[in-house]
Amino acid sequence: MYQPPHFREDDLNVQHALIRAHPLGLLITAGASGLIANSVPFHLDAEASGKGTLRLHLARANGQWRDIAAGTPILAVFQGSDSYITPSWYQTKAETGKVVPTWNYAVVQARGPARVIEDAAWLLAQISALTGQQEGLREKPWAVSDAPDDFIRAQLKGIVGIEIEIAEIDGKWKVSQNRPVADREGVAKGLTEVAEQAEMQELVRRYGGLGTE
User: Fold this and answer.
1) Sheet order of strands, 114-117 included
2) H or E element at residue 127
3) What separation in angstroms does the CA of 14 have from each of 17, 26, 49, 109?
4) pLDDT tens digits for 15-31?
């Protein structure tokens, strides 16, 4: 990933927070089956290894797991908040007109050795953790144990587990840090006019040293 220094985010806790907030990642491999990318929900166990361990499952019919079992390298990509940035929000536009559009975003990429797991107990623990991660804030959360045991056992036969011990993790928060302060202010203000962009506005203010409103 191209990483200008001012966009780097090396804080592991911040990187992990993005993965938890946006757990539907892109699992990318380039093995015997060619270049494959699948959108998959991940569960992060931050304590399982130095940089954290990612756990997921794939349908047994999905041949990507066979490439992983053969040792192909893995790249997991987690896309956070993103937004188109119009030059109209920049003070520089009024001053010189020398501005162009861009796109702000936050993203985490992770790599590491992976293993394929077919153990039913591991798979049950993985889907239970993944379900709990998503259901935890519901008033009446659903749990895997709510379904009949024989039904769950049958479902587990149709999936394969993957565990990735993170060896390398990179964060990129491209949120207008390279712009003059007046332009950052303009972006933060402009984002208030765009529906569902509160998260990006907060990132622009935090990483741009603008404080909070």
Assistant:
1) 43-45, 53-59, 159-165, 114-117
2) helix 120-135
3) 5, 19, 17, 13
4) 999 999 999 999 999 99
Predicted structure pTM score: 0.90
Q: Is the C-alpha dihedral spanning 7, 4, 108, 16 positive or negative?
A: negative
Q: What's the confidence (pLDDT) of residue 164?
A: 98
As a whole-number percent, the residues of the chain with pLDDT over 70 amount to 98
What are the structure tokens assigned to 165, written together?
């011990």
E-strand stretches of the chain: 24-31, 34-41, 43-45, 53-59, 74-85, 102-111, 114-117, 159-165, 168-174
pLDDT(195) > 70: no
Write out the two tokens for 87.
């030059």
Give the pair of three-digit tokens for residue 5. Answer: 């220094």
| Beta-strand pair 43-45/24-31 | unpaired
